[in-house]
Structures are given as C-alpha cells and as structure tokens.
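Q: Here's a chain of 208 amino acids. Please give me its 3D structure as tokens.
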Amino acid sequence: MAAPSTAEVARPSRGGRPRDPSRDGVIRAAILRLLADVGYGALTMDAVAAEAGVGKATIYRRWRTKQDLVVDTISDLNRAEAHTPDTGSLEGDLRELMHSLASVVNGPTGAATLSLLSTVPRHPALAEAFRNGPLAVWSQPFDQVLANAEARGELDPSFRTTPAAETISALLVQRWLLTGDPVDDAYADEVLDTVVLPLVRSHAGARA
C-alpha cells in the first residue's frame, strides 16, 4: 500500500484547479509519514506542507480540508504495487502477489494505515476511500490470478466463492493488524505452502 507514481496523469483537484503531477508523489509521501508519526487527529495542512517542502498554497490548491487530503491519498494507495503477476502457474502467481502484499504492509503505507484504523469508523468518507481504494485495488489482482488459473485448468471456478479463497490474504492481514509479529516473505511462503495450496488441492479433490 504505497504512494502512487509521480508520473500519473494530472486530475482536477477538489478546489477545481489542475494539479502539477511532479509534486503529487512528494506530497503524498509526506502525508503517509505524518499519518504514521502523529495520526489523523494531529495531522495539519501546514505540517504536510512543511514535511513535503512545498508552500502552503500548493497544498490548499489541491485540497480544501484535511479530510479531502487524506481521502484523496487513501484512494490512490497501492496502485503501483498491486500488479497482477503472470508466472504461468497459480503457485508462482500467488507467491509473487503475497510477497508484494507483505512488502507493502511493512512500508510507509502500512504504518500510515495502522494509524488510521481507529479513525476510519468515525469518518464515513475515510471508510469509503479504503473500500474503493486499497481494498478494491488489491482485490483485482487476486481475482485475476485465480481467473488465470481457472483458464489454465489449475483451479475450479467454484473455489473463488469459498472461505478457503479468503485465506490467501487474510492470514497475512490478520497477523499484521492483530499480533505485531513479522509479516515477511518467509511467513507468506509458509501460509502459501501449508494453508493455501493444501486448501486448493483439497477443493480440487472434493470436486473430482
């Protein structure tokens, strides 16, 4: 879950003026750092400007309020990282995708997300931004990997609607959110090898 590329296409800001995309990546990186350090409650527009090394006018041209600023940042989280791998096998694709997820939760976006979780239930706009941003962004490559496996004949289409399919990312997210234990490539591999792939094989055997 990281700040989007500075090469993205400029979009109209909430204040109606065009953005300079060369500044967006720097500003969003500063927002993530501050969210991780001080949380949503203590975040200020002036602090973002200072952290990003830009003038306050640059911030206010893009966002009218703190909520606008954070919602917009959340909405674009993970788009650079959540790509769909194509290794030619379900195991290879899932391993690469789970490694990517582990990398994201250990980075600046993961830290910022943890700081926001207690705030989200009280701010419907933030909750919606999470649903339509990071959650939707990550759902797409996982769904596509499973669809590709179905097309290759590796996976029965019914697997995607089972609770077993939810374990692919659920154990990583649970460990990250609740235990504080490491979520690294080794753990992702362990989950894949001892939980996810056995469930896939068990489902295939039950359908045979």
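Q: Can you summarize the key feature?
A: The two ends are 38 Å apart (CA to CA).
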